[in-house]
Amino acid sequence: MKKILFLCIMMSHSFSAQYKDITIVKEVRVKNKGVVVSAHPLASEAGAKILKLGGNSYDAIVATQYALAVVYPQAGNIGGGGFLVGVKSTGEKFTIDYRETAPQKASHDMYIDKNGKADTNLSQNGRLAVGIPGSVAGFFATLKYCKLPMSKLIQPAIDLAEKGFAITEKEADLLNSNQENFKKHNSSSIVFVKPIPWKAGDILTQKELAESLKLIQKLGSKGFYEGKTANLIVSEMKKGNGIISLDDLKNYKVAERKPLEFNYKGNNIVSMPLPSSGGILLAQMLKMAEFENLEKYQQNSVKAVQIMVEAERRAFADRAEYMGDPDFIEDKTSYLISDEYLKNRWKNFSFNKATLSSEVGKIIPQPKESTETTHISVIDKEGNAASVTTTLNGLYGSKVVVSGAGFFLNNEMDDFSVKPGVPNMFGAVGGEANSIQPHKRMLSSMTPTIVLKNGKPIIIVGTPGGTTIPTSVYQSIVDVIDFKLNANITVNSPKFHHQWLPETVAFEKNFPESIVKELEKLGYKSEKVKQIGRTEMILIDENGNINAVADGRGDDSVAVE
User: Fold this and answer.
1) Distance CA 518, CA 313 (A)
2) pLDDT in tens, 159-173
3) How many CA atoms lie within 13 A of 510 on its CB side?
4) Is pLDDT at 5 greater than 70 in this prediction?
5) Sign (positive/negative) of CA torsion 115, 118, 123, 124?
6) What SS3 class is residue 256?
7) Which residues contact 160 (CB under 8 A, 6 or more apart)?
8) Beta bridge partners of 390
9) Does 85 score more than 80 pLDDT?
10) What is residue 366's predicted lDDT score, i.e. its pLDDT?
């Protein structure tokens, strides 16, 4: 049922009546071809199909995102939001912010109970957790950079939803483990719940979702933000304590922002600005690591990890204090990534011992993390590059499916500081800069990034993983630029993560134990985690050779036009 190819030069695929034969391609090496890397083979193939039809990277991005909403329901979506970073072959750089926003009826203390405690169950599960979805508006905002009409870009997703596709073993396991959550938060029957357990090869058909996609195909963005689908979303809100209104949906706006750019060792890093914390964190971490000449060390050696962890610690402390929606706060990006500020931040670094997190911020107890997002990296044969990260926030978002419309809604309100000092589901602490206000965008960790050399893309990278996203992108860039590693080793090497609070450094279970022990002797607290992120990377060398790698931690896959 499932074939895995670890190296493939070029593949051609055709869409059949039903999508049963799923081929996972982990790595390709090509030239003068467009490639798509995403979390699911059928989504990557949808993007590659659009490239074959004459579309560019941005066409492929839209098609892949719509397909992920069908085949990857735990994170792919039309009920969530995301960020796009693009670099055109002409050199033009742009970002599209289609992050969810707080509804008009949202308020600063909406998740605080009568005893003054934060009720994170309400911000993480059910209808009150839902922010106004931005994905569909973002797809239409991307059209200005596309070559093909939306009617063609959305068709592969409609076919997948209407005809059905065979689910993978990983998807079956996730659906099975969430059956009770689905039942708890949905009063109507949904296609994701069935009386016997899901298994690999089962066909998932989503007729209601297909109809929702057809409305978008026929009516444009109004097919989602107005009319039937909007009414169904509001009706779903009224089944519980949801607060999104028809006006909220109709008035949602995408924001096109100036990319966050900075230099790292002769390379131009292009990433996402606020309300993503990712670009700022990436700049801070890379610049602080540069003070110690990181290239002198080896990947995942004691000193390399120590330098990188300490940079992560300081950056995440700043995230909690300074970062939020730039339309609502003073944007201190320039100050936070300045050499003067970062040199001062780095003064108390020592190779002799771990820095205490209390030295960079107030200690607050943290919960365990949970992560679910999805990333797409694309380059076309003309050299247009796109890096896109989208999310429902938690696994299957709020767990609520819009009855009659067939898609999951996000639980993105939890990415606000529900109560200053109280951590969200990923353990991230925030302050007033990220407090809840109507129409405000919640702070994000998503870090879609493109690295340029002499004006040309050389790295297109991103990953899911909540607060582990910026640190994984950071490690990916360091692995390529400083440690001179190839894409496969970079993507699949064991990762680590630190975020100021909790004090603990998280290591993937296959991280070298000897290195962990040496770090513990220096005062670092450690924990083992199953996995950190699922990185999608494209490397392009000076001769135009493309090496695209999909993360081995999941069903992620590369497709070639």
Assistant:
1) 19
2) 999 999 999 999 999
3) 7
4) no
5) negative
6) strand
7) 19, 42, 46, 67, 70, 71
8) 82, 374
9) yes
10) 40
Residue 427's Cβ-count burial label (10 Å; 0-12, 13-18, 19+) is buried
Cα(329)–Cα(325) distance, rounded to whole angstroms? 6
CA dihedral 216, 221, 225, 231 (to 10 degrees): -30
| Single-letter code of the amino acid located at 191 | V
What's the confidence (pLDDT) of residue 116? 86
What mean pLDDT comes out for the span 79-95? Answer: 98
Distance CA 182, CA 92 (A): 44
What is the layout of strands, in order, in the sheet containing 505-508? Answer: 496-497, 505-508, 526-529
Radius of gyration for the alpha carbons in the chain, expressed in angstroms and rounded: 22
Comparing C-alpha atoms, which of 183, 221, 561, 212 is closest to residue 399?
A: 183
Quick one: pLDDT band at residue 417, thresholds 50, 70, 90? confident
- Asked whether the CA dihedral 198, 204, 207, 210 is positive or negative, the reply is positive
Please report the DSSP string for 99-138 in residue order: --B--TT--TTTTB-TTS-B-HHHHHSSGGGPPBP-HHHH
**CA separation for the pair 557, 547 (Å, rounded):** 13
Residue 310 — very low, low, confident or very high, per pLDDT cuts 50/70/90?
very high
Across 93-112, b (16+ Cβ under 10 Å) vs e yields bbbbbbbbbbbeebebebbb
Query: What is the structure's pLDDT at 244?
Result: 98
Residue 132 has φ and ψ, to the nearest 5°, of -65, 120
DSSP 449-512: EEEEETTEEEEEEE---TTHHHHHHHHHHHHHHTT---HHHHHHS--EE--SSSSPEEEETTS-
Dump pLDDT digits (tens) for 456-499.
999 999 999 999 999 999 999 999 999 999 999 999 999 999 99
DSSP class of residue 242? -
Q: What DSSP designation does 355 have?
A: P
Structure tokens that stand for 125 in this block: 């599960």
Torsion, Cα of 311, 317, 321, 327 (10° steps): 40
Q: Is 25 exposed, middle or buried (0-12, 13-18, 19+ CB in 10 A)?
A: buried
Q: What is the pLDDT of residue 15?
A: 38
Q: Average per-residue pLDDT in the chain?
A: 93
Candidates 95, 142, 229, 373; catalytic one = 373
Q: pLDDT-derived band of residue 362, with 50, 70 and 90 as boundaries?
A: low
371 included as an active-site residue: no
- 389: confidence class by pLDDT, cuts 50, 70, 90: very high
Residue 253 in contact with residue 132, Cβ under 8 Å?
Answer: no
